[in-house]
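Why do we bother with a discrete structure alphabet at all? Because it lets us treat a fold like text: something you can write down, compare, and reason about line by line. To make this less abstract, here is a complete entry for Decaprenylphospho-beta-D-erythro-pentofuranosid-2-ulose 2-reductase. Read it the way you would read a sentence in a foreign language you are learning: slowly, and without expecting to understand everything at once.
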Amino acid sequence: MKDAFGLPQSLLVLGGTSEIALATARRLIARRTRTVWLAGRPTPALESAAADLRALGADVRTVAFDALDPASHESALGKVFAEGDIDLVLLAFGVLGDQARDERDPVAAVRVAQTNYTGAVSAGLVAARALQSQGHGSLVVLSSVAAERARRANFIYGSSKAGLDAFAQGLGDALHGTGVHVMVVRPGFVRTRMTAGLEEAPLATTPEEVAAAVELGLRRRSETVWVPGVLRVVMSGLRHLPRGLFRRLPV
């Protein structure tokens, strides 16, 4: 169960090699979390991530999970929940894609959408049902500021995150009053392996800063978290710009 400050004793990460998720796990282990499940494709990177968290004193286990195989999600996550209650599920998997390439290759574009949206819908519903069955817990969904308005530079990725964001908000409304808390996290540009080599956007942040915002959001039982917080104001302005003007912006 969560402690008096709303922090979890047990954590399930969907996307077990995500740098943001691992930064969050490290932060939570330093506070209260003692049991961690890392769900992802069986790779040396997943095992290395588990070993690093074990060195911090947590009981860490891995489970095979593939976002692109929704038919397996109920079985994979069922193994985790069968071992005991989970206080926090962190849905952290996703791909950025390559906008220029993906525009020319619809199959590649669909893979981005299937990973970021379809896979997340499946895993999110399975996790939500399990949390609801146990009567408590939080589902934290890593969205993006890109979900707020599609930009020419990354509209395939942005549209997939927009779908995920809307889904997570609706799921939070559906679960209101059940004991299950859903929190949507919208980071801006985060310095990770996924964004390496890209031109850094203004107000760039780090996995550790996102992790700190997630912790604070859990303590407050927030429904939406922006990282950094000023992006809430920035994106509100961009969202309401006339489309003709928005097209002229260097975004």
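What the structure line is telling us, in plain words: The CA atoms of residues 53 and 61 lie 10 Å apart. The longest strand covers residues 180-187.
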